[in-house]
Design brief:
- This protein is of the alpha/beta class and about 325 residues long.
- The chain folds into two domains: about 170 residues, Nitrogenase molybdenum iron protein domain (Rossmann fold), CATH 3.40.50.1980; about 120 residues, 3-Layer(aba) Sandwich (Rossmann fold), CATH 3.40.50.1980.
- The chain is about 30% helix and about 20% strand.
- It starts with about 20 loop residues before the first strand and ends in a 6-residue tail after the last helix.
Length: about 325
C-alpha cells in the first residue's frame, strides 16, 4: 500500500485573476527539501495562449496521460509527483522503479474529488480530454483552487496548437516543464540526447525520402491515417520518409481504401494499441479480397509502432527509431 505524505498545515495557495494568468504558490510554506539543483526563482511560460506562472517550483504535481508522466520521470522529477493517472502502455523500463513509488490515482482519469484528495499544487496533462468533462475539470476551475496547470501544446485547442507539429515542439514542451520545475539544465541534456538519437535514426534511411508510408491508426471502413500536421507526420518527417497522405489536413484524417490503393504506399505503419491491436489490422489487410493484393500488403511491408510512441513526449524518439529500423529491414522497400 502506498502512503501519501501529508501536506504541512502551513501551506498556502493563492490564485490570480483567471483571465490573466495561473499562479501557483503551492508548497511555499513546506520544509520539504527540493529536488537537488532546482531553481526557486519565479517562472512564467505561455501555454495554450495562457500565461502560467509559478512563484516556486511545484512540489506536489499530478500527471495525467503517459507522455506527461514520462517527461516528468525523464527529467528526474519523480519526487515531485503526488500522483499520476492514465497509462496507455507499460511505463518505460528505465523509469519503472520510480514510477512504482508514485500513487496511481486512477486507471483512467481520476474524479475531481480523487485529484483534490492528492492535494496537488500543479496538474500536467498531455491530452485536451484531461481537462474536459471526462477528466478532472477545466483549467480555470483548478486555477480558482490555486492549482496551476500545463497542457501539452499538441493537445491545445486548435487555435493555439502548432500548425504542423515537429520534434522541436516536443522539445519546447520539455523545456517549459523543466523551467516550471526549476531544472532547465536537465531539459537541455535530455534534448541533446534525443536529437542525437533522431539524427542516427534518420541516417539509417539516408536517401529514402521517396519511400512512401501510409500510417494507419484505426478504422476499417474508412481508415484513419496520419495526415499533414500531427504526431504521425512529425515522426515520418523526422525519419526522412514521405507521408502518403501528407496532403490531408489535420493530425489524422479519414480516407478510403480505394484512395490508398491508388496511392500505392511502399510501407504501411500499423499502430498497436490495447484497444486496436496491430495484429488485427494486419489480419484485416492480408485477408481482404482486394487489399491483400496491394504490393505493400502482399510483400508484408509492415512496421508496427506502439501507440505510446506516437504521442508527443519522450517516446517520440522511439517511434522515429522504430520506423527507420523497420523500413531498413523490410524486403522490397524502395530505398
Amino acid at each position: 500500500m502506498r502512503v501519501r505524505a501529508m501536506r504541512p498545515t502551513l501551506s498556502r495557495r493563492v490564485a490570480a485573476p483567471l483571465s490573466i494568468l495561473l499562479v501557483l504558490l503551492g508548497g511555499c510554506a513546506t520544509d520539504d527539501t527540493p529536488t537537488a539543483g532546482a531553481s526557486a526563482a519565479p517562472v512564467t511560460v505561455t501555454n495554450c495562449g495562457t500565461p502560467v506562472a509559478v512563484a516556486a517550483p511545484p512540489k506536489r504535481a499530478v500527471t495525467l496521460n503517459q507522455p506527461a508522466t514520462e517527461i516528468m520521470l525523464a527529467l528526474g522529477l519523480g519526487d515531485r509527483l503526488a500522483g499520476t493517472a492514465y497509462l496507455d502502455d507499460a511505463i518505460l523500463p528505465e523509469h519503472a522503479a520510480t514510477y512504482a513509488s508514485i500513487p496511481v490515482l486512477s486507471e483512467k482519469y481520476p474524479s475531481k474529488e480523487a485529484l483534490l484528495d492528492a492535494e496537488p499544487d500543479f496538474v500536467y496533462a498531455s491530452f485536451h480530454s484531461a481537462f474536459g468533462d471526462e477528466g478532472v475539470g477545466d483549467r480555470a476551475a483548478l486555477a480558482g483552487l490555486g492549482i496551476g496547470t500545463y497542457l501539452s501544446p499538441a493537445g491545445c485547442p486548435k487555435q493555439h496548437r502548432p500548425a504542423t507539429l515537429t520534434v522541436d515542439d516536443v522539445f519546447a514542451e520539455i523545456r517549459d516543464v523543466a523551467a516550471v520545475f526549476g531544472v532547465p539544465e536537465r531539459a537541455e541534456k535530455l534534448i541533446a540526447d534525443q536529437r542525437a538519437r533522431i539524427t542516427a535514426a534518420a541516417a539509417r534511411l539516408d536517401g529514402a525520402g521517396q519511400v512512401s508510408v501510409l500510417w494507419w491508426d484505426a478504422g476499417t471502413d474508412a481508415p484513419s491515417v496520419g495526415a499533414c500536421c500531427g504526431s504521425p507526420n512529425m515522426i515520418m518527417s523526422a525519419a526522412g520518409v514521405r507521408n502518403t497522405f501528407g496532403d490531408l489536413a489535420g493530425s489524422w484524417a479519414d480516407t478510403s481504401w480505394e484512395t490508398a490503393i491508388e496511392r500505392n504506399p511502399d510501407v504501411i505503419v500499423l499502430v498497436d494499441a490495447s484497444w486496436d491491436a496491430a495484429a488485427a489490422k494486419k489480419a484485416f489487410l492480408t485477408q481482404h479480397p482486394t487489399l491483400k493484393n496491394l504490393p505493400a500488403v502482399a510483400g508484408q511491408r509492415f512496421v508496427v509502432i506502439p501507440f505510446s510512441s506516437t504521442s508527443a513526449g519522450v517516446r517520440v524518439v522511439q517511434g522515429i527509431e522504430t520506423l527507420a529500423e523497420g523500413v531498413v529491414q523490410l524486403p522490397g522497400a524502395d530505398r
